[in-house]
């Protein structure tokens, strides 16, 4: 869960840091598409939680309120997140306003951050239950991510927002064979190739300088 949340945080940080300097029409198109993809990916994650993981946990633990705080937090930022997604889908480069764009993000970002932070202790508290059973519920929820989004959008975003050096590189995330990154780079990322310029890492999960920054900034993104 920490790794998934870090994807969202790195993606939003990348948008917030770079968007003030995106001015060319083609770059604005890519920024809006990238941001729309972030919204879809967050929605896909929360869809899996709301529809599958949270009900499964409630039934298994016989505690209907076990994830109630997290569900309430979802509701607190969902409307703002949806408004940002709609703006990205309906706005042309000529209509784009950085002030409006930033205002939409600012309206929900604090609530989203609070949720991403608070959900981790909630998950850690589940350690009193058998790990195999919890893993089964998690895998089941993950199977439904494409009900909301598509591989050629969410996979390039996710791989480009993973840092293989996180906490000294001691984590194997994602838990997938090494060749999956090649498939993402040379297959899934091809359709919207220019969009992934906004990612803070390459598809091999190595951090890289941000592209849309003033010359006097080093382009490093602290996550």
TrEMBL record:
Pfam families: Hemerythrin (PF01814). InterPro entries: Dimeric_xanthone_biosynth, Hemerythrin-like. Gene3D superfamilies: nmb1532 protein domain like. Residues 5-119 form the Hemerythrin-like domain. It comes from the Eukaryota. It comes from Trichoderma asperellum (strain ATCC 204424 / CBS 433.97 / NBRC 101777). This is Hemerythrin-like domain-containing protein. The lineage of its organism: Eukaryota, Fungi, Dikarya, Ascomycota, Pezizomycotina.
